[in-house]
Amino acid sequence: MADYDRILADAARRWPDKAALLAGAAVHTYAEVAATVDAVAAALAARGVRAGDRVALCLGNDPEWVFAFFALSRLRASAVMMSTAWMAHEIGHAFAVTGPTAVIADAAKAPLIDEAGRPALAILAGADADGRPGWHPFAELTAGGSPAPPRDPADPSGSELALPFSSGTTGLPKAVRHTHRSLTVATIQWRDALGVTDDDRLQALTPLSHILGIVNVGATFAAGATIRLFRKFSPRTMIESFEADRITIGMTVAPIAAALAAMGDLERFRLDSLRYLNWSATPVNQDIAREVTRRTGIGWVPAYGTTEVPILAVNPVDRLPRTRLDSVGLPPPGVEIEAVDPATGAFLPRGATGELVARSPAAMSGYLPAGGPSPFLDGGWYRTGDIGHVEPEGWVVVTDRLKDLIRVSGHQVSPVEVETVLAASPLVADCAVFGAPDDRRGEVACAAVVPAAGWEPDADAIRAWLAERLAPYKLPRDVHFVARIPRTASGKVQRRLLRP
């Protein structure tokens, strides 16, 4: 039986007085987190949230996210994972795809959520949560007064638990349906692969709305460890926390690793508590990783996963400091990875390069909206869209990407989505969006634009148009003005001809 809420309940029983969450100056013990989750679950149930309902979470890396997510798990409802970077049309798309009955959001996002068409039940978190018409303050949920709802004795393993978003190559992002079973399995895989114990302290710098954020919190609780939450990423705050909080496992993506390597006074910080640094979500930049290790002596544990299958491969912790930076690691127990011919789906021998496919009990149950080509081959093999090979001993090497997705600091950006918004500008006659390498973020979006007749090309005007309509991580770093966009006879953009 897989019941995700049991991860927290078991931790509160085993380590009631242990610090679970660090947020600013606040320390929340496991007993306090569990009690607050019960209060929030009771308050949501009293307001009509039932098993099977979907509730949108548009919250930053704050304790409220943890309280709300586990309360929904407790109720057997599911969480629609919305980014706080999204603009109104992105929020509206998420609402249309998932149909939430309620929303819990950071106060700063309320105007955009109102514009997008908020659900009937709307709850605001944050210092400015009072007084907005149609919204209720999150404090009402934590005040208590109602008994905790009884636990449903039925097995929720196949019940939907979370809907993080993954950009497809053909348009707006799709919601990825994860169940109690898939996320419980992924959480335990992540805990075990990273070797997390109740002596560890982790950091949550990546958004909790991402699959990586979900499993980071889950693995922390499953191990009885402690996690430091950060609302905003700051290299200085991060490195100071490594020292002050005695962090043992640093969770990083490309921009965080780059910031460490570029820090002029890195050597002056006491970092002896760190067991290793994890690199996830984007390919390892070996030069950056080696520079950080040279200056600190701290090794790396690269890992590989997708929103659809959270944990695909991890470098073994017991190999430190001899980690392989050229490989994303070995599949954890229960996960199979092979390479197939991208055109036929035929399995290739070990060592041959093809599209990587994976089979795992942590795989998603499907997408919303449903329809379109299946991302699974016969036998339950998920097509990752990544090109690479599997060595005879099982080591996975990712070399390229079959899909056009652009991965910016762990975010997935659909070129088609950005193109759709850009093409609506009166300044643009035609356009195409493609990815380009970036030392700090792994990859960034770039745009090729055919300017509208009679308009003097102006890259700043293009960026201003997009900034009002897209999340910052989706904005093109470079705008190139061209006479024509290269396309196939069928009209498909030939992105490979645009990439540097």
Topology:
Elements: H1 5-14, E1 19-23, E2 26-29, H2 30-46, E3 54-58, H3 63-75, E4 78-81, H4 88-98, E5 102-106, H5 110-116, E6 121-125, E7 136-137, H6 139-142, E8 160-163, E9 165-166, E10 174-179, H7 180-194, E11 201-204, H8 211-223, E12 226-229, H9 235-244, E13 249-252, H10 254-262, E14 276-279, H11 286-296, E15 300-304, E16 313-314, E17 336-340, E18 354-359, E19 366-368, E20 376-377, E21 381-390, E22 396-401, E23 406-408, E24 411-413, H12 415-423, E25 428-438, E26 442-451, H13 459-467, E27 478-481
Parallel strand pairs: 1-12, 3-4, 3-5, 4-8, 5-6, 6-7, 11-12, 13-14, 14-15, 26-27
Antiparallel strand pairs: 1-2, 8-10, 9-10, 10-19, 15-16, 17-18, 18-21, 20-21, 21-22, 23-24, 25-26
Helix pairs in contact: 1-2, 1-8, 2-3, 4-5, 7-8, 10-11
CATH architecture of the domain at 5-232: 3-Layer(aba) Sandwich
Helix content bin: 25-40%
**Total of DSSP H or I helical runs spanning 4+ residues:** 13
Which consecutive residue ranges, at least 5 long each, have pLDDT under 50? none
Describe the model.
There is one protein chain. The protein is α/β, with parallel strands linked by helices. Among the domains are: 5-232, Rossmann fold (3-Layer(aba) Sandwich); 406-497, ANL, C-terminal domain (GMP Synthetase, Chain A, domain 3), CATH 3.30.300.30. 28% of the residues lie in helices and 26% in strands. Strands 3, 4, 5, 6, 7, 8, 9, 10 and 19 form a 9-stranded mixed sheet that branches. α7 (180-194) packs across α8.
